[in-house]
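Lab manual, section 2.4: Encoding a predicted structure.

Procedure: take the sequence of the chain (458 residues), apply the prediction step described in section 2.3, and record the output as structure tokens. A sample record is shown.
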Amino acid sequence: METDTIAAISTPIGEGAIAIVRLSGPEAIEIASKVFKGRNLTEVDSHTIHYGKLINPQTQEIVEEVMVSVMKAPKTFTREDIVEINCHGGLVSVNRVLELILENGARLAEPGEFTKRAFLNGRIDLSQAEAVIDLIRAKTDRAMNIALKQMDGRLSKLIQSLRQELLETLAHVEVNIDYPEYDDVEEMTLEVMKEKTNHVHHQIEKLLQTAKQGKILREGIGTAIIGRPNVGKSSLLNALAHENKAIVTDIPGTTRDVIEEYVNVRGVPLRLIDTAGIRETEDIVEKIGVERSRKVLQEADLVLLVLNYGDEWTQEDEHLFKAVEGMDVIVIVNKTDLPQQIDMDQVKKLAARYPLVTTSLIQEKGIDELEQAIADTFFEGDLNTGDLTYVSNVRHIQLLKDAKKALEDAIGGIEAGMPIDVVQIDVTRTWEILGEIVGDTVSDSLIDQLFSQFCLGK
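Recorded output:
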């Protein structure tokens, strides 16, 4: 267990009204007291805030005018003494405060070390700690709500309940093996184990059914907007983002590079990528943009294929349909304010497997229908984040798949009439795998790796 006192800036670096330097550890209050001129921080009540000045003990120079919060263990985030120094939010001021604290006994915190201490001190489990990252990175209200519920222990409680069920089953098996009072004890034990393993298997399957939606809410849908030049791709990005992010002109080839923007569509985060128009070109810069567009297309989760209502159908349009075969695609026929030139029968024939939406982005028509088509493609038009426990973390999803496989091996062993002590190995393995989700059976190296993804000061 850590015994030193750590410190870091806990607010974003830059100009602002307030910045916070946070300390945590057994000497947090003592270190702050060395440099604080005001109330004696060692004597104040816990969870109180105090006005004063920070003084350099060597020179007696005033460093900053501050408000200092004192929170005493164990009722803190890390279950250690915590001091938070609120200073003016400028680059110079906050760095001067941090330097002063480090010079007087604190150590600079590693990324995520405050949350790591909360985990090591039993304040939260590993899945709750990982939810902190999800909360910080949430792009929509729904993603934030899922992270909040995971931080509150919703997933943890379910996993712990399943582990407890398996543990009780294993204990029951041990008792029957050690004290075989009846001839049919093994048959009875196998029936109990089969019933319990089937129940836990069903619960894991239910969790995994939420994985696709949960992962999308956590990471967003990588969405590529493709089409020939000047069909309205940049206008579409601007319409979904509700602001002008991309330059829009009537000149083909204006977009020379890939433009990325996160947008919120019906509570679903889209990592929207406006690509350079895909066509054969001799322009060197545009050619680079087209090649990048092709690469983005290969990595996309969703493709918005845009056609021009006011242009005739071309071979390039047909090539685009061939390029997106097997992908999730929504076809958009844009510029319906222009006289029709495109062959809609040809479009409907090639787009028969995909949702088809007509838009006039310049007249702001068709956007609602497009947003609904996106929601329908991934969430069947409805997303319920209220009652379900969502699993969204890639590590959790893989561990649940491993646990499901171990349980299937156990169930298969029971049905094949294998000895109970052999079946017991797979059930024990499932219990251990589920423990990795909440951090009960996880290695120190994995813990270090997970917390290294956090920002400083968290």
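Check your result against the sample. The chain is about 45% helix and 15% strand.
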